[in-house]
Amino acid sequence: MENKAKLKFIEVEKMILTLNNAIDLVSKNTIEEHDLWLKDSVIQRFEYSIEWIWKFLKVLLLEEYWKDVPTPKQIIKEAYNVWILEKVKIFIDMIDRRNRLAHDYHQNFANYSFEEIAYNYIKPINILIDKIKREYE
Asked: The domain 3-136: what is its CATH number?
C-alpha cells in the first residue's frame, strides 16, 4: 500500500481506539450523571471515525485498485466488491446514521444511536481495522 493510504490508516486506527475506549468507559460508568456526556462522546467519536473510514477507503481504492469512487456510499460498495469489507449493508447504515446524527440530534435518536454503535457497529469496524492492519504488517 502506498504512503497516503498508510498515513490515513494510522489516523483511522487511532480514532477507532478512542471510540473503543469511550464505549468501554460507558460500560464501566457507575455515576448516572456522567451517562449522557459519556454516550455523547461515543457518538461524536463515531461520527468522525466513520468520516475518516470512508475517506481512507477512498484513498485505498485509488492507490490499490485504481478506482476513483466519488461518494461515501459508493466507496463502501466498491470496498465490498474488492473484498476489503465483509458486510456492505452495515457500513452503509453507519454512513446514513452519521449523516443523520450530524443534522438531527434528538435525545431519543442519540440514545438509540449509542446502542447501535456500541452493540452493532463497533465489531465490524474493529474487524475492518484488524484486517487492514494485517495488510500493513
From this structure: 1.20.120.330
